[in-house]
Amino acid sequence: ITLSNEGTKVLPDDMKPVALLCIGCALIISSVLLLLKSIWKSCYKTSKLPRKSTIVLFFEFLVAMGAAILTIVAMPHLDIVTNVTILNGVAVLSALLQVITQCSAKERNRFLLPSIFAFILILLGYALFLYLYITKHPTDIKMIIWVGLAVGASFLVSFNWWENYLRLISKSSSSVFLKNLCKDLTKCQNMLNILTSLLRIAVTACVLGAFVPLDKMDWNIVTSIPSRETKIIAIIIGVQLISSALCHWFSLVACKMHALRRCFILPLYLASLAVMVLFIVPVIVYYQDYRTSLNGTAINFTGYCNQVVDGRNQSLNVSKVVMFVNPPSGSAVSWWLGLLLATLHLWYLNMDRIQRTQDLFIRRLYEGAFIEQSLLLNTRFDILVVDTLMVYLCATMWHETYDEMMNIIISIFRLDKYRPKTDQKYTDFTFETHIYFDDAFKDVKGNGRGLKITLKVLPFSVVSIFTNIDDNFFNKKQQIPDQKIIRTPYGGRLVVIMPHGNIILVHFKDKELIRQKKRWSQVMYLYYLLGWKLMKKYYTRWQKGEDEAELRKLCMFLQKEKHNTYILALDGDTDFQPAAVMLLIDRLKMYPGVGAACGRIHPTGSGPAVWFQKFEYAVSHWLQKTAEHVIGCVLCSPGCFSLFRAAALMDDNVMKKYSTKSTEASQYIQYDQGEDRWLCTLLLKQGWRVEYNAAADAYTNAPEDFGELYNQRRRWGPSTMANVVDLLGSTSTISKRNRSMSKPFMLYQLFAIASSILAPATICLMIAGSFTFLFQMDASIALVLAVIPPIIYLVLCFKLKSETQIKIAGLLSIMYAFLMLVVTLSIIGSMVKENTILTPSSIFVIAISSIYIITAIMHPQEIQLIFHGLIYILAIPSAYLLLSIYSMVNMNNVSWGTRETKPAAGAVTPEPSTPQTRTQKGRYQVDTKKNLQKKYLEPLQDDKERQQKIGNDLRELRNKVTFAYFMLNALWLVATFTLQLSAAVSITIPILDFNLKPTGKNIQIDPIGFMFITGFATLVGIQFLTMFYHRIYTLIHYVAFLDTEPKEEKNEPKEAYLSGKKVLKLLLLLDLLL
């Protein structure tokens, strides 16, 4: 704007159209960005045309016209201080609408008077502005026109934030038109953004195109700008555009990090003052220099400014004065104070961590010409905060050891201390814990069926971890009196109150009364907590036959409670901190479309098998899960630590289908072998989003034995493939229903599953290449030698027992590990020998290694896991060749594979047990529970004919899938190898040395291999880039959490703890679990 002023000396007068063109670019760049973003979002979901778009487009036309006239036509004829401060006057209509909104609200509002004063001050600023300029130039008709246009355009711009108050006014208004308009604005936001962006661009272009010839300027000068002026304009416009976009992004970050006052409001308030200081201070310096040069001649500051602005004194070094100023006037102060009062409510906004952008700001658009005013006025007048949440912690236990059970018990009591029920200041959520024991009963002579578990006294040192009670509290270990376990239709139940008031319900399942194993325990708590406990009170009121209005209100309350009820699925050995739960709650609380969220799972244990899993888990979370989260949805939220929304679980075809009994062979694979992945598949099909939070850490025991690891992956491999194929087969339906699952994302998953399926053949080709490189043998012989061991192992897997198969796989894994070590060292040696790293194998190895190292650096708390990558490299043939063969051939084995027999007690030896308690029959609460149990959880009857049929079907399915799987690998192997031998269809690439000069040697790459490498590189590149994006937002979330969560108080008095009676209950629970 300064460059387009008629008095500037930086640009000649004939080049002013260039400066005006830059102003137009600054105005429309935000509209262009919004247009591109809205088009991108419309690709993910259907965008409807608004029914009431006329009024919206009319206001947008007024705003675009006002912004263009103000910045392009009027402001170039005003001084810098006025230009900076008049932008604060665009809050005039917002202040008026605030008054209307608060007057129409029924409750009393404390911001009514500030809004009234803000409106009066802004109007006073305009009056002073008109008075000062008109009285200063009473005969200058053009100046009067410019001033009038500036005032009128400012009023038009103030229409920009009318939506912020329309929504609030419509709530307290009985107008059907306003309510429908607000609904229309919400449902058709993408299409409205596209239309309004195009309208703004068109209006700005028309005003700019019309004003230049009207002001007797020539557009032709744009094509003949000298290089000096070109650089000046490019730098200025580049700085303006980039800084505006960054200001908008950092404002979002500041709000999401809960730094609203110190990092958002205060800097934006001071922005106008800072700009004025930046421009005025140099003028004061030049003024002092000028006074010195006059040798005592009197001249005041106003006279000096007049001389500079009017250009009357040509002896001044005007080229050094890069702006034209008038001293700040009363209008500037009035406008600034008016903006402060109009946005005073922002200081008292109540918002949550990582608040959604659409909940923070009414519009996605920011104004490049007046960025600070648009950000302040665009912030919602009233941000809705989610009500108190209900979280159910549901753990399933199946033959866990002493130490494993201690992990989850410690975690639960940590959470009890972190969110005590007895302290009323914590209102964000309440929780209740349910632990489900499978196979908890056995036959006892003369006593019916009794608990398998015996009561034991737990060492005091463990209890003190949770309660912080001084050591002198216990003089001796307490003996536990006989306790009563309530008899229930499914077995038994025990209720224990934790030290801080939260409760744990321990459910002991009898396999003769109810179905056992993890999926049926999950179905049990889903129907108990959601199907009965949540719905009971609403169903009771519905049965009373209330009127239609009350029933409609009842349905609204029900939907709200379903959205605010969460289930945290846990395994019996999961170890987690309260912070991890809070971070998962934040994801679901802020984003209503999120049906589930999982955390970063860390495997624990020792030994080579665990070391391999540590790096495997790290890579899958660092790269794969982050990529799924950013560009689509996480496909599997692990059942050991995941938070689910009740509304998502209770959606059509989710909970009901999850409780379906497996009747076909494929269902045994998809439903029972990976229940957590299948549940996520159901959620994704219904349109729910599944997310990943990298800061929510949880620890679970990993298989330490090679055979146990193979059996675990034998379940996971076919189940993963079945669920991914199921999703890919429903691409069209899912991409329409789930806005996060686009067709490009499904293409990404298709390539990922294809790479996984073809992994055995790829490993064989890699081994063949290793033989060729190491022993200088013929490629055909090398390939034969590479495929013989896998073929022999494949045949043996069909003939031998699984235990024998695993032993053979272990021996082969050791052999392949030595081969991988030699191959890795050989690749390094070849790079040194040939003096080049620019071969495909070298580039691939260096690129993958660099990506893993940089990724590990981006996760500083886990950087030590990069050393486990050495074990991972050595185990690649075992993990992607032998394990694939084992899992595919044993697909018909649908047993769990791990924890099938109860292990011995853990390392910690409890004290001698007290006599076993007797169970007591207790009445169950209502018959509804019995009906649910009979319908969904009645034990499956043993039918030998049916079992034999299922076994035959599973073997038949195994044979079909195995044939197709290995036939695809054989075809890929033959096609790739054939093309490698045929030089006529290969791609020739010259080998370059370290100086990027040709060595005279060439390398041949077959087209299929080249495409595969290119595709794999693209896949890893996408994961790498999305990892950076995900890390930034993880950091934002974690900083917001640290800044908002209360710090734990230390050295609490003894009175804060409960009596010894409740400590005995704690001991009882822990010993029962043991």
From TrEMBL:
SUPFAM superfamilies (UniProt xref): Nucleotide-diphospho-sugar transferases
Catalytic activity entry: [(1->4)-N-acetyl-beta-D-glucosaminyl](n) + UDP-N-acetyl-alpha-D-glucosamine = [(1->4)-N-acetyl-beta-D-glucosaminyl](n+1) + UDP + H(+)
What does UniProt give as GO cellular component? plasma membrane
Keyword annotations for this protein, in alphabetical order, are: Cell membrane, Coiled coil, Glycoprotein, Glycosyltransferase, Membrane, Transferase, Transmembrane, Transmembrane helix
**What is this enzyme's class at the first EC digit?**
transferase
Protein family = Belongs to the chitin synthase family. Class IV subfamily.
- The molecule here is called chitin synthase
Write out the GO biological process terms: chitin biosynthetic process
| EC number assigned by the record | 2.4.1.16
Matching InterPro entries: Chitin_synth, Nucleotide-diphossugar_trans
The record's region (Disordered) falls at 902-924
Localized where? Cell membrane
Q: How does it sit in the membrane?
A: Multi-pass membrane protein
Q: Where are the transmembrane segments?
A: 18-36, 56-74, 80-99, 111-131, 143-162, 192-212, 232-252, 264-287, 332-349, 745-768, 774-796, 808-831, 837-858, 870-889, 963-996, 1008-1029
Pfam families assigned to the protein according to its UniProt record, in alphabetical order: Chitin_synth_2 (PF03142)
The record's GO molecular-function terms, alphabetically, read: chitin synthase activity
Query: Which coarse location class applies to the principal site listed for this UniProt protein?
Result: membrane
